[in-house]
Specification:
Cofactor: Mg(2+)
Bound molecules: 1,6-di-O-phosphono-beta-D-glucopyranose, magnesium ion
Oligomer: single chain
Enzyme class: isomerase
Distance between the termini: 11 Å
GO molecular function: beta-phosphoglucomutase activity
Helix content: 40-55%
Strand order of the largest sheet: 3-2-1-4-5-6
Strand content: 5-15%
Family: Belongs to the HAD-like hydrolase superfamily. CbbY/CbbZ/Gph/YieH family.
Number of helices: 9
Keywords: Carbohydrate metabolism, Isomerase, Magnesium, Metal-binding, Phosphoprotein
Length: 218
């Protein structure tokens, strides 16, 4: 059976994806750059600065200094923090707390592998921090998703073999990162979108502990 579960945060544990979307949309409007949900899909799992670069690339006439980019990324983060101000345990996605408890009861370790620098704050607001044996510090990861570093960092913290890990992700870049780490990848979303995942569920309520272990063992 697996020795470590590594959870993505945004889109798996809670739907902060919506707040990231709204915060980027506000910034894009200020910059007069077109922005919609379809484009936003590309930003899932990607770091703040990389997301900004993708948005700025839509308007080639905008050439900004590093300092200006830092300011814009910071503005987006302030909008985001305002939006997540009032989240609480009710914002944990369906089935997640049950799954986490079952993993614990089976003495399997749990780590968080999020690209978000706000991850600690979000987990705290959801009341889930106590369940996590390790939280990857996004600020220390050199190569973000789709590079496997986020996931291998979590396994390395326990010296657990990558093949003994299950990673759960909602983003294409995240699934790619798990696969590159040679871990078992679970995708949350459409099979079409997450075709590369070893196992896909439509939404988080489909994440059943026994089934995940069975799929992993096959
Ligand atoms: P922050 P995840 C990712 O979280 C989000 O999916 C992505 O949209 C966001 O840009 C990234 O975190 C960085 O977040 O601006 O809070 O540092 O899906 O890896 O949990
Ligand atoms: Mg995600």
């Amino acid at each position: 059976s697996p020795k470590l579960f590594i959870f993505d945060l945004d889109g798996v544990i809670t739907d902060t994806a919506e707040y990231h979307y709204l915060a980027w949309k506000k910034l894009a409007e200020e910059l007069d750059v077109s922005f919609d949900r379809q484009f936003n899909e590309q930003l899932k799992g990607i770091s703040r600065m990389e997301s900004l670069e993708l948005i700025l690339a839509k308007n080639r006439s905008l050439s900004l200094s590093d300092h200006e980019k830092e300011k814009l990324a910071n503005d987006k983060n302030e909008y985001y923090k305002q939006l997540i101000e009032s989240i609480n345990g009710e914002n944990t996605l369906p089935g997640i707390e049950k799954l986490i408890k079952e993993i614990k009861e089976n003495n399997i370790k749990i780590a968080l592998g999020s690209a978000s620098k706000n991850a600690n704050m979000v987990l705290d607001k959801l009341g889930l921090t106590e369940y996590f044996d390790y939280i990857v510090d996004a600020a220390k990861v050199k190569k973000g998703k789709p590079d496997p570093e986020t996931f291998t960092t979590a396994a390395d913290a326990f010296s657990i073999h990558y093949s003994d890990c299950i990673g759960i992700e909602d983003a294409v870049a995240g699934v790619e990162a798990i696969n590159k780490a040679s871990m078992f990848s679970v995708g949350v979303g459409s099979t079409e979108h997450l075709a590369e995942a070893d196992y896909v569920v439509n939404d988080t309520s489909g994440l059943q502990f026994e089934e995940l272990v069975r799929q992993y063992s096959n």
